[in-house]
Amino acid sequence: MYTFDYQRPASTAAAAAAFQGEARYLAGGQSLVQAMKLRLSSSERLVDLGGIAELKGITVAPGQVTIGAMSTHAAVANSAEVRKALPALAELAGGIGDPMVRNMGTLGGSIANADPAADYPAAVLALGATVITNQRRIAGEAFFTGLYETALKPGELITAVSFPVPAKAAYIKYKQPASRFALVGVFVAQTSGGVRVAVTGAAGSVFRCQPIEAALAGSFTPEAAKAVKVGADDLNTDLHASAAYRAAMISVMASRAVAAALAR
Amino acid sequence: MEVDPETGRTTVEKFTAVDDFGNLVNPLIVAGQVHGGLAQGLGQAMLEGCVYDSRSGQLLTGSSMDYTMPRADDLPNFVVDHTVTPCTHNPLGVKGCGEAGAIGSPPAFINALTDALGVKDMPMPATAERVWRAANNVA
């Protein structure tokens, strides 16, 4: 790890002001600190967000669940309010990493990092969530722009994510056996705008699978999802799985997510 | 063993090992040796494998993020038992017990898997994709 300057501001405004030079925000550190230890990432300054109270907190209002950017995965998974209002989201959070990762990792850190196999981006895209920053509100559809790339500007700080509550939803992932990240993860949601199906782990960035959405709009059943043959072009091939296998698993995971959503 | 043909995921539901190590001086330690060997052998059969880039020779499975070691939730509770035929070549009548688990479990696993799939061969590790292709006749 290279040396760096460390700041721990007490407010969002102070954090933005502290973001000087070649800086990065530090949330749970579950991706950033690992990258720094491997010398894949180095910054002149880390701005630790852990002391900013206004970035934590979960608010459930009718039809809306708003989660502070520094909320840990464990906090979301264990929240009785989220489990009642949006159980698919609590289950997704509870399936991230392991207990140690969940005690430190945060929603804001996860989506700002935009790992192609992270779980939260599938929820943001499938539910049509809004990413709230200290500068503006960004629609979920516009947030993830590429491999580890988002619409955030340098220094822009996510403060919360607001999730509309769907009629029914579920997230099922097939875990890459070593990392337990999503080899293919599918979030299916019946939203006010129709059925949305978001896929993570299969490509360079999370994406919506229009063929499965169309099939489920006709018949919201596991069989309808399973029958869709998803194209393998643009999907990842790596040492763990080929694009063809990932394509097949998108349909399988989607059908299992539909079954889980219907079973609530 | 259960094979999920939709995903190729294989789970070992029950595993029984019966060994003859001669006289058991400390049965608890012997059981530990067998458990460890079974875990290692099942890891070899199901999960572990070094993968190299064919052009550069670079090791791609360079960390636990990509090289899959077996974990407790990959494995069932083992059923372990013994017969006792004292070794005639030493005063204690004992035999080595550290290797048996790792030697017996890979063929036991692959035999069960090829039987389940109705195929003649399955290379190790029997990854989900390899099993899925065999189960669904995908080349």
Largest interface: A-B, 13 and 20 residues
What is the end-to-end distance of chain A? 47 Å
Helix/strand-derived category of chain A reads alpha+beta
Structural class of chain B: alpha+beta
Series of secondary-structure elements of chain A, N-terminal to C-terminal: EHEHEEEHHHHHHEEHEEEEEEEHHH
Tell me the number of strands of chain B: 4
Mean pLDDT figure of chain B: 96
Share of helical residues of chain A = 25-40%
Bin the strand percentage of chain B. Answer: 5-15%
* Radius of gyration over C-alpha positions of chain B, nearest whole angstrom: 18 Å
Strand content of chain A: 25-35%
Order of secondary-structure elements of chain B = EEEHEHH
Structure characterization notes:
- The complex is a heterodimer of chains A (264) and B (139).
- The longest helix of chain A is centred in the last third of the chain and has 20 residues, at 243-262.
- Chain A has 264 residues and is α+β, with helices and mostly antiparallel strands.
- In chain A, 35% of the residues lie in helices and 25% in strands.
- Chain B has 139 residues and is of the alpha+beta class.
- In chain B, 33% of the residues lie in helices and 13% in strands.
- Chain B has helices spanning 27-46, 100-117, 128-135, and strands at residues 2-4, 9-11, 15-20, 78-83.
- In chain B, the strands form two sheets. Chain B has a two-stranded antiparallel sheet. A two-stranded parallel ribbon of chain B has the order 3-4.
- In chain B, a hairpin with a 4-residue loop joins strand 1 and strand 2 (9-11).
- In chain B, helix 1 (27-46) packs across helix 2.
- The radius of gyration of chain B is 18 Å and the shape is globular.
- The model of chain B has no long low-confidence stretch (mean pLDDT 96).
- Chains A and B meet through helix 12 of A and helix 3 of B.
